[in-house]
Amino acid sequence: ESIYGYVIRKQNRHAEALPWYNKSIARLKKLPLDVQREALVRDDLDKSYQGRAVCLIMVKRYQEAIPDLDLVIGSVQGHDAIFVRLLRGYAHAHLGNHEAAVKNVDAAMKLPDGRKGDGLTAARIYSLSMKAVEDDRAFAGDRAPLLRRLAGAAIDALVRDRQRGGADAKTLESASDLARLRLTPEYQDYRK
What we know:
The protein is mainly alpha-helical. Helices cover about 75% and strands about 0% of the residues. Helix 2 runs antiparallel to helix 4 (about 40-60), helix 5 (about 60-70) packs antiparallel against helix 6 and helix 6 (about 80-95) packs parallel to helix 8 (about 120-135). The longest helix is centred in the first third of the chain and has 20 residues, at about 40-60.
């Protein structure tokens, strides 16, 4: 079932892919625990949780995606480890949990195996987090140092992405998630 979910998800039919991931997870969870721990089964279960989380995020069900990502965070390797942390950061950012979002993105950016596009995703999350910090009425103290740190981290991520052949200027200017970042002096310096 997870392969069906994957194929449907790749066609950007995220809501339609969810039942296939749900079926895959349900079947795999019925297996005895010792079988679930076997590498091939564990990998399929991780991919099913990860795929379902992507679909949940794409249909804006961010809160539901986080537990799936929490389940796989310790077992995924290589670029999947980066991808899962970025997804988890993205979900937290959309929920207004700027601290959790930044923690996940910072962790992802420290891992090796980064790819083209990771920096843009990280910058989007930092920018969303900047907006969340500004909107957080319970935030105590001066927001300016944190906003500068987030802007700096976003620019560092974009620089890394550019070194990997990442996003072009048109993408940066049109990405709605980068709206807050585009207002900063750091971004203006980056664009020069």
